[in-house]
Amino acid sequence: MSDPRTLSEQALTTGDIADLLRDGVPVHLQNCSFIGVDFAEADLAEWRFEKCDLRHANLDHCILEDVVFSGCRSVEASFRFARFSQVAFKDDDLSNTSFKHSQFADVAFEGCKMLGVDFTDTTTNELAFKKCNLGLSQMQKITLRDATLTAVNFDQADLTCGDFRNALFDECSLRESNVSEANFQGADLRNSDLGGLQMSDARRFKGAIISKRQAADLLGQLRLKVL
Predict the structure, then answer these.
(1) Which residues constitute the domain of residue 71?
(2) Would 133 be classed as within a structural domain?
């Protein structure tokens, strides 16, 4: 593929994106604005977005392979039905963004604000989160089996029917999250905040590994002491 083209400090339109796609070369974008721009069905392989404004942008059905989003503002953007492969999101604001029905393979989110993000009906393979705020997110049926999740906030997230088997939750928070019918078999929750786990909640984490402190809290409700 040809050497990438670099653009910076520009406000681009849907027409501008169409022109760039016709050129057929990867584009590196720095401090550019794409507010409300329509990228739908575009092949964005090897594109780079650095400190760009993608608020309300439409990236539905896009092909995103070897793409980087760094320091971008993508509030309420739409990535529905997109295909992600070897993609990195770092220090981005993705609040209220929709990834519904998308496919993820080897994708990493690090240091991202993701309040209210929608991952409903996604297909995942090697999806990673580190130091992300996923509070109030929609993650029904998501698969994070064998994943390492570091410093991730899942407070009040909907994790219904999620697959978290053998996942490591390191310094995560699941306060008031909905984990109905989720599978935590073999998941390590010892170093995470479960929000004052109650006996009535314990069955939802069936098969998970918890700490002595967490176990003691549970048994304390039965007036039993762990020595």
Answers:
(1) 5-220
(2) yes
Closest of 129, 137, 135 to residue 153, by C-alpha: 135
Identify the three-state secondary structure at position 18: helix
- CA separation for the pair 139, 98 (Å, rounded): 11
How confident is the model over 156-179, as pLDDT tens digits? 999 999 999 999 999 999 988 888
**Is residue 170, in this structure, part of any structural domain at all?**
yes
User: At 84, phi and psi to the nearest 5?
Assistant: -110, 130
Instruction: Report the half-sphere exposure of 127 (CA within 13 A, side-chain side).
Output: 19
The whole-model pTM stands at 0.92
Residue 226 is predicted with a pLDDT of 60
Tell me the pairing of strands 5-8 and 48-50: unpaired
CATH, residue 80: 2.160.20.80
- Does 185 fall in a domain? yes
